[in-house]
C-alpha cells in the first residue's frame, strides 16, 4: 500500500478525524461498521468491486439529498451500503432491518447518556 498516497487522500477531506498516526474513527459504531464490511467480504457476500459500486451509489444518493460530503457522514454511508447489500443478497429483509432500527432507537431513548445501549425483547414491541 502506498502510505504517502493514502495519507494525502485522507488529508484531502478535512472532516476526517485523525491523530498523529493517521485517520481514526469518530465513534465505536464506525469501527464496527467497518469491521462488518470486512467480515462480510471475507465470507464472500460481496466483492470489493460490488462494495465500491454500492458505496458510491449510496454517497451519490446522499449528495443528491443534500449531504455536504465533508467526510463527517462517511460511515453513515457505509452502514446504508451494508443494509442495502445484505437485503439485496437475501441475508435479511428490509422489514427486518427496519424492525431492528426501530428497536435500537427505542433502546437508545431509554438508555442514560454514557451507558451502553442494550436491546431487550421489549424494544421490539
Automatic annotation (TrEMBL):
Coiled coil: none annotated. SUPFAM superfamilies: Electron transport accessory proteins. InterPro entries: CN_hydtase_beta-like_N, CN_hydtase_beta_C, Elect_transpt_acc-like_dom_sf, Nitrile_Hydratase_acc_put. It comes from the Bacteria. Residues 18-103 form the Nitrile hydratase beta subunit-like N-terminal domain. This is Nitrile hydratase accessory protein.
Amino acid at each position: 500500500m502506498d502510505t504517502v498516497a493514502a495519507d494525502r487522500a485522507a488529508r484531502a477531506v478535512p472532516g476526517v478525524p485523525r491523530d498523529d498516526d493517521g485517520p481514526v474513527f469518530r465513534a465505536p459504531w464506525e469501527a464496527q461498521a467497518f469491521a462488518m464490511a470486512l467480515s462480510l467480504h471475507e465470507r464472500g457476500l460481496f466483492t470489493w468491486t460490488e462494495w465500491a459500486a454500492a458505496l458510491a451509489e449510496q454517497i451519490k444518493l446522499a449528495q443528491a439529498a443534500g449531504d455536504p460530503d465533508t467526510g463527517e457522514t462517511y460511515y453513515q454511508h457505509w452502514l446504508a451500503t451494508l443494509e442495502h447489500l445484505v437485503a439485496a443478497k437475501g441475508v435479511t429483509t428490509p422489514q427486518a432491518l427496519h424492525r431492528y432500527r426501530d428497536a435500537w432507537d427505542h433502546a437508545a431513548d431509554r438508555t442514560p447518556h454514557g451507558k451502553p445501549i442494550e436491546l431487550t425483547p421489549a424494544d421490539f414491541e
